[in-house]
Amino acid sequence: MDFKTIRIIIKFKYLLVQFIQLIIGTAIVAVATSLFLLPNQLSAGGFSGIATITYYLFNIPLRNYGINIKYSVIYNIII
Predict the structure, then answer these.
(1) Which pLDDT score is estimated for 42?
(2) What is the pLDDT, as a whole number, of residue 21?
(3) Residue 19: burial class (beta carbons within 10 Å; 0-12, 13-18, 19+)
(4) Residue-by-residue pLDDT tens, the chain, 79 positions
(5) For residue 55, how many other CB atoms are within 10 A of its CB?
(6) Which of the residues 2, 24, 43, 77 could staple to 49 if both were Cys, CB 3.0 to 4.6 A apart?
(7) Domain residue spans in the chain?
(8) Torsions phi, psi of 60, nearest 5?
């Protein structure tokens, strides 16, 4: 194998590890929100906090992706 091939393999492994870490981190946040924040009626900061507050005010579930996309657009316009 030449140096270019080895470099491509190392870059691929690095990106794969980054992707796996991203998936695990997102899963941890989702579990924490579902099991800790929502039952205790707490809200986090940022977009998830807006979604949590909306959930309690209007009784719209957090898994409603169409609503979440609209809120993210509104959130980005405000900031």
Answers:
(1) 79
(2) 92
(3) exposed
(4) 788 888 988 999 999 999 899 889 888 887 887 788 777 877 777 777 777 787 788 876 666 555 556 666 666 666 5
(5) 18
(6) 43
(7) 3-78
(8) -95, 125
Q: What are phi and psi of 59, to 5 degrees?
A: 60, 35
Q: Copy the structure tokens of residue 65.
A: 């992706």
Query: In this structure, are residues 45 and 60 in contact, taking their beta carbons and an 8 Å threshold?
Result: no
Answer positive or negative: Cα dihedral of 54, 78, 76, 17: negative
What DSSP letter does each residue of the chain carry, written as one string?
Answer: --HHHHHHHHHHHHHHHHHHHHHHHHHHHHHHIIIIITTTT---STHHHHHHHHHHHH---TT-HHHHHHHHHHHHHH-
Amino acid in position 59:
N
